[in-house]
Amino acid sequence: MQNQETTQQPHLNEEHITLLISLSEENPRKLIENLLETYKTSWARHIESIKKACAEKDAKALRSPVHLINGSSANLGFQRLSLTCRRIEDEIETGVYNDFENCVQQLEEEYEVTLKKLEAFLERN
To answer: Would 72 be classed as within a structural domain?
Structure first.
């Protein structure tokens, strides 16, 4: 379940993404495409681990792939997805996480919306 603090945040940290784009003098679009390709590959691997951990209701096994998605999402400026992962991590750390039934759907929905928002942002810039 999303909390209100998370849902009030924008999906993208556009300043951060603009900074990433500016790091490439030769082909900014190519840099973002390469980073996104790497992100999508790691996402696919980590979401499978998350699905397994949620099916087994294993919070300890859930923490690591959620943490990895959190870090890579933050690095790319995927703010809301990162915050969602951070909330899950915090709840696991404090021993109160129990939303295994909704975890995968919630993360996958945030992932899809984030990618659409990124595509729209890149088209505008």
So the answer is: yes
Domain that includes residue 96, residue range: 11-20+57-125
pLDDT for 30 beyond 60:
yes
Q: What is the mean pLDDT of residues 34-61?
A: 97
Q: Give the global pTM.
A: 0.91
Q: Is residue 38 part of a domain?
A: no
Number of domains into which the chain is organized: 1
- CB count within 10 Å of CB 81 equals 28
The span from the CA of 105 to the CA of 37, in Å, is 22
As a whole number of angstroms, the distance between CA 55 and CA 114 comes to 25
> Which residues are within 8 A (CB) of 17 and not within 5 positions of it... i.e. 6 or more apart?
32, 76, 77, 118, 121
